[in-house]
Amino acid sequence: RLDNVWGVGGGQRPVKHLVKEMNLLLREYLLSGEVSEAEHCLRELEVPHFHHELVYEAVVMVLEGSGEGPVAMMVTLLKVLWETGLVTLDQMNRGFQRVYEELGDISLDVPLAHSLLERLVELCFDRGIITKALRDACP
Fold this sequence. Notes:
Blueprint: H1 2-6, H2 15-32, H3 35-45, H4 51-64, H5 68-84, H6 89-109, H7 113-126, H8 132-136
């Protein structure tokens, strides 16, 4: 049971390494568009308790990116991860809440972050990825 919760070897790696791996996974996904490969890479990391970090990094990547392509792609990825159960409701909420809390700092680098986040949150809500409560909590 513990292996299912914490992963067999993933919990032994430093957080910085895991964050770096998740960023690489997301960048590769944006280049290739292969959802199944991104899903496979996330499973290989063996850190199901840390999947909220992927949600956080995905949303920040969308805010810092440009164009509609990354927005649609990340919504698709989050939808698949949500439907397969790789990202739980709690992890989805934690990832988005962290972005909400850091939006002031993110806005310093990305002046349009508020409107981009609002659009992303609305898309995620429309696709059934996030709850109404989480949508309404968006700053």
